[in-house]
Amino acid sequence: MAMREIRTVGDPVLRTPCDPITTVDDRVRSLVEDLLETVDEEGRAGLAANQIGVSLRAFSWNIDGDIGYVLNPRLVAVSEDEFQDDDEGCLSVPGLYYPTKRFWYARVEGTDLAGEDVVVEGEELMGRCLQHECDHLDGKLYLDRLDRGNRKKAMKAIREGL
Questions:
Q1: Which of 22, 45, 66, 78 has its CB surrounded by the most CB atoms within 10 Å?
Q2: Contact 158, 75 (CB under 8 A)
Q3: Residue 134 assigned ligand-binding role
Q4: Domain that includes residue 45, residue range
Q5: pLDDT beneath 50: ranges in the chain
Q6: What is the CATH number of the domain that holds 30?
Q7: Annotated catalytic residue 41
Q8: C-alpha–C-alpha distance, residues 106 and 126, integer Å
Q9: What are 63-90's pLDDT values in tens digits?
């Protein structure tokens, strides 16, 4: 296992949709170990594979001491009528936090290393994390969801070197 370097905004891997995992091999098992070790640090809620430079559909989470992972996650349910608009940040956009509208609840389905079905769901921070990480795997950053004014501020801060 290895603590991996986090790719930051401007790296093209963050803007490229990730490929599905079709075979669980040593490379994928090693990826999961690295995702779990890298997310297991104070202040980290989630980590998508492309944030460590691997363009495969996998992410890990670390919410309230619950650490896990999912392969080939699909966002399958959200609370269509309940939202949250709290500050959101991202390891790939260090130091910037902006109000980001997300669904209050989210449910993700995928698989584990053994090919067994995995369901991960949650409200508030876990719901936000699931949506945020699925966005990463689709090549999106939370910056894409900001209102016009905050997006303009964020892009200026990024251009100025954060």
A1: 45
A2: no
A3: no
A4: 12-159
A5: none
A6: 3.90.45.10
A7: no
A8: 8
A9: 998 999 999 999 999 999 999 999 999 9
